[in-house]
Amino acid sequence: MDFEHADALNQAIRLLSLRHRARAASLLAPLGLHPGQEVLLLELARSGPMIQAQLSEALGCEPPSVTLMTRKLEATGHISRRPAPSDKRASVVELTDSGRALAGRVRQLWCALAEETVAGLPAETAAALPGILNALTDNVDTRRPRHAHGRRNIPATETRRDGPAGRGAGPSVDGATGRGAGPSDDGAENDGAENDGAEN
Amino acid sequence: MDFEHADALNQAIRLLSLRHRARAASLLAPLGLHPGQEVLLLELARSGPMIQAQLSEALGCEPPSVTLMTRKLEATGHISRRPAPSDKRASVVELTDSGRALAGRVRQLWCALAEETVAGLPAETAAALPGILNALTDNVDTRRPRHAHGRRNIPATETRRDGPAGRGAGPSVDGATGRGAGPSDDGAENDGAENDGAEN
DNA sequence: CGAATAACATTATGCGCATAACGTTATTCG
DNA sequence: CGAATAACGTTATGCGCATAATGTTATTCG
Questions:
Q1: Radius of gyration, CA atoms only, chain B
Q2: Which residues are in the HTH marR-type domain (chains A, B) (predicted)?
Q3: CA quadruple B39, B41, B43, B49: dihedral positive or negative?
Q4: What is the pLDDT of residues B158-171, one digit of tens each?
Q5: Residue nearest to nucleotide D14 (CA to C1')
Q6: Which class in CATH covers the domain with range B1-136?
Q7: Do A111 and B17 lie within an 8 Å CB cutoff?
């Protein structure tokens, strides 16, 4: 590929990153949120309580980022953190009531953002975008599948395309209850976790 | 748009942003550069010396970011900064010899990055990507064209797609020599700048 | 001509990203 | 069983992004 085309592509990706994130920021600001935090709330709303390691994996970012974001969201009362019952290393993160309400509002603006993003694009182009973008992401993913040099022992066979939904395969909870709260839970949540597991 | 599709799109954009940037970081690290700095070097290599305001506009980022990046690149000897001869507010940024050499290496890895990014994609898809991505960017651009609330007085009629190449229309150098060094220059560069102007 | 406004770069601060290092806890291995 | 290894969350630090504020300089306006 010649430089001009390479530059056009790389710059397009860079500018989309900047502008999409900035637009998200402007939509999130009235909710008191910063870009990056919304996906954390959405993940907890979707998948329920989980340990931080699972969160960082689901979000595709490193543990210190999750540590700081959860700390701030806990401070604002939107999430709670408690030690995992069977693993003193781990803490379980869970939405509070206000966090669930906030996640609902995030869902709305998330839809608005996406609609705004693809406005004027042919419908079939818009529909194909996630797949195309994910293919690009897989190509440049430094963490996997080419060399899983991440600090967590992530199976190289796990495909990236599952994204947040693929978190159930996290090795840190192998042998535990599955995808519910991570290391362990009380009986009521066990039921829920097992049902999810059976779906897989 | 329903939430699932909206989420798929927004997450795809977010993850591509993260991973593309991380991959760029790994390629840039051996050169002692951080993501964001490469586009500054490439812009200077392409367009020649310019004041920082022009840089920030060309790069699509805010002036403090340029201030810090130029400071660091000046400290490593890759760029030089000097006060603009006819405007004491402005400083002209220019590649040094080592900066030009570095920009050459950035060009190479930039091509490699782009190729890696579109590997396995149909050629026509890859060719259409910059246009599609730029359309998305235009849709969510909070700075223009819907309301040019940026701090610089940017004409609302200027289209975003020109990107770096459209810098010549920067209002801050209206009435000056054009796109060369910004506020003013010596005779030799005046010739060059006027030639470029005629091209437009 | 002088006040008002705008442009320039900078500083301060906040943010989510990253890496590196660390201490504690859990698991594995010989 | 104990050493070695791995996992967890955290702290420290660096980075490019952003916004807000500032001081100086340049331009505009009445």
A1: 18
A2: 6-138
A3: positive
A4: 333 333 333 333 43
A5: B34
A6: mainly alpha
A7: no
